[in-house]
């Protein structure tokens, strides 16, 4: 059945094609509907199944016409009007618009002028210098296309963590319910909480492979079976591939360690073991000091069942903890397994004591209907209170570069909103911070009046424009923003959108040093399309002494849930509770923001 993400994807495609066709107004309506459909907390296909038309039309931005298309899509798997549009404009629009600076309008023009339909067509035209000859384009645009085509190709094949992880949770819940399953766990990038996922890996420990594999491929959510064999099977669920591997319970820990990766971590771990006369593989940790069958190379000639890889004295393999312990290392959370120093830290007992969800006491960046959010101040605060938070910050958009006219708040409106926020604060149990999301212009300035700055508790400053600057200019710009004494948090520092645009490239250490010196926190924006900062940049920030703020950037109560992605992303950057200001006591937070 169609997921909300798939439905949203169709409307995004609709919007892109209409825009490529120079249609006005409608694309915006479709995009708004897509966004709300994507964020909707329950499966919309269920409403269709139950014939609950009202529930569909209750979704913000979904009127009669869009509801009809949703029903058509869920029931038939396609939308006639969209198919017609696709025939008329046979452009791989999602692929082509992944190139920074190439929007649907440009894609439409390139199709009409040069017949470009695919990324390959586009690359060929750029190589042949045909693009700069089209009116309105120039050598700079053409060069930009050449520079970004690789990025566009690569990202097209990966899913967002925020879309793949809920599916992985469902797979796990299903497998746990199978009688023959003794142990199961996700593995691979999904267990490491990487921000994008190539495929979902799951591992089962059982003594009855056949029964488990048979039930797995018959799972109700499976759209098609890709392959299945005696010890593994792969299926497709929506757009996501799920790989199941089945092992005996006694080797579950070894397989879990191996298939969690990442590859670099595994290679380093294997070398670490070899240096100590041990051998690590997907079957266990083995003492091979008494084995004279040659070094590592002999394993390659082993049978498909790994017979010759189970050579020597097995020291561990049943549990993952045991695997690391046999190597003299403490167990480490999967988020850390990227070969950025975690093995040395495990050896010396200096692994970080990572932040957890329970440590989070608030959020500093959310939106209301005052700008582009869907709810009132009261509703957002109520939802934050309902999550047990101690404090909560509203940060609607201020007007400025990159913000659609009329959507951002003027200085006068900011002062009006602050007053309302104070009233809501007085009437609620949690501390409510009056904030704003200011816009960092191309030179690093934020355009807020002194009066607004004085009235506000939290100023989140974010870039929303000029995201194609070179590294030096981008770094200077962001450093200037964090040095501004009014700025408390630098919002989504790179401005990247996963699978859509790469955002600013900047020197994370230089930025973090400036942030640390000026008591400005760097944001981990938890929106699954952003996750910005991310693992390596969070780690650089913390190493330089900067503080992190994990924010949801929620535009409605349901997306306060995004905190889950932000916390795991911060864990990928070795964040301990003290590094993250939203674990602090309310008084400490006030002090930091002041
Ligand atoms: P993905 O699916 O592209 O998001 O990334 P992963 O990390 O899930 O990669 P995947 O699905 O190809 O393989 C799952 C894990 O299996 C991977 O993280 C580490 C392990 N693995 C796969 N191939 C190799 C390999 O050739 N050598 C080693 N040491 N480990 C491997
Ligand atoms: Ca994978
Ligand atoms: Ca895989
Ligand atoms: Zn925001």
Automatic annotation (TrEMBL):
NCBIfam families, A to Z: PRK08609.1
EC number: 2.7.7.7, 4.2.99.18
Ranges where the DNA-directed DNA polymerase X domain occurs: 2-338
Cofactor: Mg(2+)
Region (Disordered) residue spans: 291-311
Record-given protein name: DNA polymerase beta
Organism of provenance: Natrialba asiatica (strain ATCC 700177 / DSM 12278 / JCM 9576 / FERM P-10747 / NBRC 102637 / 172P1)
Reactions mediated catalytically: a 5'-end 2'-deoxyribose-2'-deoxyribonucleotide-DNA = (2E,4S)-4-hydroxypenten-2-al-5-phosphate + a 5'-end 5'-phospho-2'-deoxyribonucleoside-DNA + H(+); 2'-deoxyribonucleotide-(2'-deoxyribose 5'-phosphate)-2'-deoxyribonucleotide-DNA = a 3'-end 2'-deoxyribonucleotide-(2,3-dehydro-2,3-deoxyribose 5'-phosphate)-DNA + a 5'-end 5'-phospho-2'-deoxyribonucleoside-DNA + H(+); DNA(n) + a 2'-deoxyribonucleoside 5'-triphosphate = DNA(n+1) + diphosphate
Highest taxon in the source lineage: Archaea
Molecular function via GO: class I DNA-(apurinic or apyrimidinic site) endonuclease activity; DNA binding; DNA-directed DNA polymerase activity; phosphoric ester hydrolase activity; zinc ion binding
InterPro entries: DNA-dir_DNA_pol_X, DNA_pol_lamdba_lyase_dom_sf, DNA_Pol_thumb_sf, DNA_pol_X_beta-like, HHH_MUS81, Hlx-hairpin-Hlx_DNA-bd_motif, NT_sf, PHP_dom
GO CC, any one term: cytosol
GO biological process: DNA repair
Alphabetical keyword list: DNA damage, DNA repair, DNA replication, DNA synthesis, DNA-directed DNA polymerase, Methylation, Nucleotidyltransferase, Sodium, Transferase, Ubl conjugation
A Pfam family matched in the record: DNA_pol_B_thumb
Keyword Ubl conjugation: yes
SMART domains associated with the record: HhH1 (SM00278), POLIIIAc (SM00481), POLXc (SM00483)
Keyword flag Ubl conjugation: yes
Described purpose of this protein according to its UniProt entry: Repair polymerase that plays a key role in base-excision repair. During this process, the damaged base is excised by specific DNA glycosylases, the DNA backbone is nicked at the abasic site by an apurinic/apyrimidic (AP) endonuclease, and POLB removes 5'-deoxyribose-phosphate from the preincised AP site acting as a 5'-deoxyribose-phosphate lyase (5'-dRP lyase); through its DNA polymerase activity, it adds one nucleotide to the 3' end of the arising single-nucleotide gap.
Residues of the signal peptide: none
Compartments (UniProt record): Cytoplasm
Domain Helix-hairpin-helix DNA-binding motif class intervals: 54-73, 94-113, 129-148
Taxonomic lineage of the native organism: Archaea, Methanobacteriati, Methanobacteriota, Stenosarchaea group, Halobacteria
Extent of Low complexity compositional bias: 297-308
Polymerase/histidinol phosphatase N-terminal domain ranges (all copies): 362-442
């Amino acid at each position: 059945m169609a997921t909300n993400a798939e439905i949203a994807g169709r409307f995004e495609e609709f919007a892109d094609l209409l825009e490529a066709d120079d249609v006005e107004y409608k694309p915006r309506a479709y995009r708004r509907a897509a966004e709300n459909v994507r964020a909707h907390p329950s499966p919309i296909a269920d409403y269709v199944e139950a014939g609950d038309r009202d529930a569909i039309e209750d979704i913000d931005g979904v009127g009669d016409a869009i509801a009809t298309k949703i029903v058509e899509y869920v029931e038939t798997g396609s939308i006639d009007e969209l198919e017609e549009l696709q025939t008329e404009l046979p452009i791989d629009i999602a692929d082509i618009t992944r190139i920074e600076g190439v929007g649907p309008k440009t894609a439409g023009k390139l199709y009409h002028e040069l017949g470009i339909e695919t990324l390959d067509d586009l690359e060929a035209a750029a190589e042949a210098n045909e693009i700069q000859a089209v009116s309105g384009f120039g050598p700079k645009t053409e060069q930009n296309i050449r520079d970004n085509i690789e990025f566009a190709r690569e990202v097209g094949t990966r899913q967002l963590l925020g879309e793949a992880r809920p599916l992985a949770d469902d797979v796990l819940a299903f497998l746990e319910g199978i009688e023959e399953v003794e142990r199961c766990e996700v593995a691979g990038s999904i267990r490491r909480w990487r921000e994008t996922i190539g495929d979902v890996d799951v591992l089962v420990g059982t003594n009855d492979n056949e029964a488990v594999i048979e039930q797995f491929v018959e799972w109700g959510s499976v759209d098609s079976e890709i392959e299945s064999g005696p010890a593994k099977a792969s299926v497709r669920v929506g757009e996501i591939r799920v790989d199941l591997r089945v092992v005996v319970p006694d080797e579950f820990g070894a397989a879990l360690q191996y298939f969690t990766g990442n590859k670099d971590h595994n290679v380093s771990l294997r070398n670490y073991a070899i240096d100590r006369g041990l051998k690590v593989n997907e079957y266990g940790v083995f003492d091979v000091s008494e084995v004279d069958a040659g070094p590592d190379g002999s394993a390659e000639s082993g049978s498909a069942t790994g017979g010759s890889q189970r050579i020597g004295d097995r020291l561990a393999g049943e549990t993952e903890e045991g695997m690391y312990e046999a190597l003299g290392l403490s167990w480490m959370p999967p988020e850390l397994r990227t070969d950025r120093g975690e093995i040395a830290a495990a050896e010396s007992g200096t692994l970080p004591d990572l932040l957890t969800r329970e440590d989070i006491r608030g959020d500093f960046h959310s939106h209301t209907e005052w700008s582009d959010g869907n709810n009132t101040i009261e509703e957002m605060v109520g939802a934050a209170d309902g999550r047990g938070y101690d404090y909560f910050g509203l940060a609607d958009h201020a007007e400025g570069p990159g913000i659609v006219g009329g959507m951002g708040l003027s200085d006068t409106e900011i002062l009006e909103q602050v007053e309302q926020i104070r009233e809501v604060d007085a009437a609620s149990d949690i501390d409510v911070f009056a904030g704003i999301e200011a816009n960092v212009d191309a030179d690093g300035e934020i355009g807020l009046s002194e009066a607004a700055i004085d009235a506000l508790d939290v100023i989140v400053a974010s870039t929303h424009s000029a995201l194609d600057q070179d590294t030096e200019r981008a770094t200077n710009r962001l450093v200037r923003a964090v040095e501004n004494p009014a700025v408390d948090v630098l919002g989504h520092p790179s401005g990247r959108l996963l699978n859509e645009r790469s955002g600013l490239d900047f020197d994370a250490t230089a930025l973090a040093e400036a942030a640390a010196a000026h008591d400005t926190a760097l944001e981990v924006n938890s929106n699954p399309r952003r996750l910005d900062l991310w693992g390596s940049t969070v780690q650089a920030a913390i190493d330089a002494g900067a503080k992190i703020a994990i924010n949801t950037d929620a535009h409605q109560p349901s997306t306060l849930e995004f905190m889950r992605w932000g916390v795991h992303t911060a864990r990928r950057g070795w964040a301990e509770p003290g590094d993250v200001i939203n674990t602090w006591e309310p008084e400490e937070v006030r002090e930091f923001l002041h």
